[in-house]
Amino acid sequence: MAENQPLDIEEIVRDSFNEDEAEHLTGKLSQLEPEEIAIALEAMPVEQRVSTWLSLHPDDQIAALTYMRVDARDNIFKQLDEAQLRSLVEGMEVDDLIELLDELPQRIYDYACSRLDESQRRWLDTALAYDEDQCGRYADHDMLIINKNAKVRDAIRLFRQLAEDAEYHDALFVVDRTGRYAGLVHATQLLGLASHLPIETVIDNEAPVVEGEMELDQGSDIVSRSGYTALAVVDDEGKLLGRLSIGEALENVRRSLESQFMHTAGLDEEEDLFAPVFYSARRRALWLGVNLITAFLAANTIGLFEATLAEIVALAVLMPIVASMGGIAGSQTLTLIIRGLALEQITPQTHMTLLRKALGVAGLNGLLWGLVIAVLTYVWFDNWVICIVIGLAVIINIVVSAFAGVIIPIWMKKVNIDPALAGSVVLTAITDMTGFFVFLGLGSLLLLT
Amino acid sequence: MAENQPLDIEEIVRDSFNEDEAEHLTGKLSQLEPEEIAIALEAMPVEQRVSTWLSLHPDDQIAALTYMRVDARDNIFKQLDEAQLRSLVEGMEVDDLIELLDELPQRIYDYACSRLDESQRRWLDTALAYDEDQCGRYADHDMLIINKNAKVRDAIRLFRQLAEDAEYHDALFVVDRTGRYAGLVHATQLLGLASHLPIETVIDNEAPVVEGEMELDQGSDIVSRSGYTALAVVDDEGKLLGRLSIGEALENVRRSLESQFMHTAGLDEEEDLFAPVFYSARRRALWLGVNLITAFLAANTIGLFEATLAEIVALAVLMPIVASMGGIAGSQTLTLIIRGLALEQITPQTHMTLLRKALGVAGLNGLLWGLVIAVLTYVWFDNWVICIVIGLAVIINIVVSAFAGVIIPIWMKKVNIDPALAGSVVLTAITDMTGFFVFLGLGSLLLLT
Q: Mainly resides where (chains A, B) (predicted)?
């Protein structure tokens, strides 16, 4: 049980800061899985990351890069000179090249392509004919393929050639003479079979198939739910393009959920913890700018009531409470609907049910918190009218926000805007404007007369 | 390729509303994987969900329940009568029972336990000795176990007994006479071996091992990175408790990331889209209440400056802009740090680097947006002093918020508070109070003299 040490990133990062530990660190990293190395490298500032990465075995260098987030590995690439980049791509397989495609300088990519043989280049061309989010692009060629007419002994011979560190290879992929996928042969099914039998007797053709044009998320769901360790990816003629393994499916599921989480704050999933300050500042600036528009819209709404505010300052003091309660109620509904959309659980059949439910929940909470806030306001300002104004405003804003929290993401999904990214900005604009308008509007009506 | 139909939840939900389609629907569901049935059931309002679920084959009923989110399945349980509950638990294995433990009424649980045989009860006791978030509780007994002294022919016999729908069973788990785990035997390694050989020659003892006391998240990471389809879970004496498969690891990773996403809005990962209105309202009320405290703290800060606001209404109009820019900057930093903490990439060694970076990014964006807002304010209000006040306030609030965005989650993790859940509330309190205080404070100083 050589490597049964839980990953200790803290220790690895500490060692990376200490030159005396360099050898020790390299030894320790060589025991880890490439995914673990990638996670540890991401946890280091760029300087330590590059020197640690350079100390890795070339195979680990490439493997770790393919598992790293785009920005994090890009910050390694930027520190490499021409010769280092060239020698790096010399060791790359086609699937590594596809993964790293966008970050390699054009001339390095061309150099890498020029070194591919005929069959590898065909693979590259086939993969690149699919979009960036399609399964066809990422179909993995690390698989065992056998002809439909083969015998059990051929299958056994193939399995016995497996490298020791091969992952998720408990089945062979069967093709017919034209390269069309015809099913799987499981190692367990071959045990105890006479070697002269045709494999046709044990072909499993019940396994689902992933189509090259499917979105990667959908393909990953199919693999992860199938119970198989890898499924065939086929083109529109049924020809075997490669496989999608459970390992990759898990990685995709992870990335996709992580990006949903990051998008809620306007961040990219590929963001590097240790990106250079100027680079990060530029990326964040955009999101602040978008939100500034929202903030000015809210301020503009308040501006409509300058005269009222000049007379009743208490309204200025209380107005953030109305906006904030609407914001919270809205974002709870929004988040629930975004998850439902991601799981494809929001269907037209239930739109009205969901809306009714959201409005019911918001109505109850509006009444409860409207009342609480009204009472607290009365205690604070000793003014019955303000207390009625804020109570009503809170109820209305919570209900409007819940309505928006259902409608906005469903509409965005329909017109292909990512609700995790854009939903909260639009929702905040609505809850702020509604909150200020209703509260100050009611205040003007009831308090100025 | 019988079941190669991508899951069409929309169609299934539509059918569930139409009694004429009942038979068709049952047929279609029986073709799906239990995970897919669970997702589809969650997408139905409770009435349709219960009637659809009742139409399933008893095995699928149990399997689907174990994959459903707690609230969603709880809403099925609530509709079942005593007899239905009893007959349901009669078909349950120990691992189903462990999964559903918390939602079953005590008398039904007792009834289920009374039907277990000696060895199953021992399994249940062992599992329940571990905490709810520990691997030991969920170790799966659906595995093939062989004695270390067995021969190749015994191993082959075991593999040949595998049920057709068995998942992730490409290896046997080897134990010694005392029940201690000793390694794996892969089906592929047995191919072509003489049947009288001892299996000891092909035991893989390089595979990592999951300890029963490890957190489920950590165990799942180990399995998912190992490249194995299932790993042994052992107790503190090295005895085999069960296995953790890649399928369960993937499910755990999914749940854990989903809960992180839901927590940012104060929601629970187990939340049912179609929970009863009253139930949901009660759950959401708490979060609104917590946020109300924040809102009142902000209002209280504004209240300190009533006199200033009465004189310069423009400040009331502009103050949400300052708070909002701080809020956005802070939540971007917070989100990035929360992801880093979840991946265990935030180590003490780099705290200062992260803080410096966050302050650098905030400084640059503070300067940029402070200037932009100052210019826009000048255009709007034609007042140099207000324009300087808001520019400075924005810079200060963005920098303070970024600082808080780094410090708060790291501190919360340290004292075992979930930063995804509590981080945004505390951060909002800080950004609002700082924003209002700095802006109105500067305004009082510079505008009232």
A: membrane
